[in-house]
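Colleagues,

For the teaching module next term, I've prepared a clean inverse folding example: a structure given as tokens, and then the sequence designed for it. I'd like students to try predicting residues themselves before seeing the answer, so please don't circulate the second half yet.
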């Protein structure tokens, strides 16, 4: 489990047109029912607990695609719109198109 603090919401929290399938749950029982179904289907996902709500982000399996050289792969933070790179040069050279292309690799097909 990881904890984080942000002054601004992650992009996924502000964008109804976010490319990855995601669901907000207020009832714990509904969230667990959904999570159990994901496990039965062997479907990868990320969970974020925030303000008494549960966000579930459904994603492509990591070994089903090849990530770009500038990233070590996308975990929960990146799947929700955050960006992390191995070095500052990679970060400085990124553009919106590259970020969208990498995020789109996580879309379930």
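(Answer key — instructors only)
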């Amino acid at each position: 489990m990881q904890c984080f603090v942000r002054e601004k919401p992650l992009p996924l929290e502000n964008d109804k047109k976010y490319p990855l399938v995601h669901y907000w749950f207020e009832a714990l029982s509904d969230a667990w029912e959904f999570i159990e179904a994901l496990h039965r289907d062997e479907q990868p996902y990320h969970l974020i607990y925030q303000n008494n709500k549960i966000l579930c982000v459904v994603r492509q399996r990591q070994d089903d695609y090849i990530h770009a050289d500038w990233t070590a792969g996308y975990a929960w933070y990146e799947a929700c719109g955050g960006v992390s790179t191995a070095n500052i040069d990679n970060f400085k050279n990124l553009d919106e198109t590259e970020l969208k292309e990498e995020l789109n690799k996580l879309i379930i097909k």
